[in-house]
Design brief:
globular; mainly beta; four-stranded antiparallel beta sheet
């Protein structure tokens, strides 16, 4: 299980204090900013090619823009 992944030039993680948020860092984790806040709970992240896959309590989602938006994978 991965709560943090490297995607392009950023580190992307599930927020440790609120699993409904995705955060990113451009300085290897020195500071974190919220990128996404949603209604489902993120459980796991993995990079696959040019997208991030996220297992959530509502199913499998993918993002092609570093976690700004998420789409359900059928």
């Amino acid at each position: 299980m991965s709560l943090m992944v490297t995607f392009k030039n950023e580190v992307v993680r599930i927020c440790p204090s609120n699993a409904k948020k995705i955060e990113y860092s451009k300085n290897n984790g020195s500071t974190w900013n919220t990128r996404y806040s949603g209604s489902y709970t993120f459980q796991d992240l993995v990079v696959s090619g040019d997208e991030i896959l996220a297992q959530t309590d509502k199913g499998l989602y993918y993002s092609k823009n570093g976690g700004s938006t998420w789409n359900k994978r059928s």
